[in-house]
Amino acid sequence: MINKTQSRATQQFVPIDEVRDGIVVLKDGSLRAILIASSLNFSLKSEDEKNSIILQFQEFLNSLDFSVQIFMESRRLDIRPYLALLEERHKEQVNELMKIQTQEYIEFIRTFTENTNIMTKSFFIVVPYTPAVMQGKKVSRLFGKKQVSAPQAKADNFEENRTQIEQRMAIVEQGLVRSGVRTAQLGTEEIIELFYKLFNPGETEKPIQVKT
User: Fold this and answer.
1) How far is CA 143 from CA 138, 150, 175, 182, in A?
2) Is 63 helix (H, G, I), strand (E, B) or coil?
3) Rounded to whole angstroms, how far apart are CA atoms 212 and 207?
4) Looking only at Cα atoms, what is the longest distance across the chain?
5) How far apart are the C-alpha atoms of 155 and 171, rounded to whole Å?
6) What's the pTM value of the predicted model, to 2 decimals?
7) Going by C-beta distance under 8 Å and a sequence separation of 6 or more, which residues neighbour residue 63?
């Protein structure tokens, strides 16, 4: 049994301070934005299309003056919600033939998924931003600025840094669009869900649903 002391000790190894407005704030003050990206069926492309995609992606990487992290999450697809939906449809059927066919389809899906590992893959791009380290007191003395409260200074710094990381996200999005890859920024709830699943791999596995 895990007690509160052990839980606090575990949290010390997680470098996240908070997730705010879809931005991950690390304990060292740096920020991370996470984009989920669509996939391309590269094998179905013609040779010219493949070469074009590779060239565009190469140009995108060469155009970046900051680092990004690209990672793929592969999880077994949880088919239970779909089976539950089919069971509801089966109960609503009034046509006896359709009722039989629906039941057979449910059994087929259940048997197939039990014997086959159906995986779902998600692709993410992590965009970082590390603010320049400044001594607040020295700067305020130099420019004759009034001292502000710590919470207000933290809020002002977050807004300023968020502007910087949003500019980087725009660069990444534009570069990937040229390669045929669509992206969407994860919101606060999606980020929390993502990290929860990463730290709790044994939990029910469902693909991340991005709100549009």
Assistant:
1) 9, 18, 39, 44
2) helix
3) 15
4) 83
5) 25
6) 0.69
7) 171, 175
DSSP, collapsed to helix, strand or coil, labels residue 146 as coil
Task: Quickly count: other Cβ atoms within 10 Å of residue 32's Cβ.
Answer: 19
- Compute the distance between CA of residue 200 and CA of residue 193 in angstroms, rounded to an integer: 10
Alpha-carbon distance of 169 to 100, in angstroms, equals 51
Mean pLDDT of 206-212: 51
127-136, 167-176, 187-196: which has the minimum mean pLDDT? 127-136
Nearest partner of 25 among 191, 147, 169, judged by Cα: 191
At residue 130, what are phi and psi to the nearest 5 degrees?
-115, 115
Joined together, the tokens standing for residue 112 give: 């197939």
Q: What is the pLDDT of residues 43-78, one digit of tens each?
A: 889 999 999 999 999 999 999 999 999 999 887 777
Token duo for residue 131: 């603010």
The token pair at 180 is 């045929």
Which tens digit of pLDDT belongs to each residue from 141-156?
555 555 555 555 566 6
Of the candidates 122, 120, 124, 123, the one whose C-alpha atom is nearest the C-alpha of residue 75 is: 120
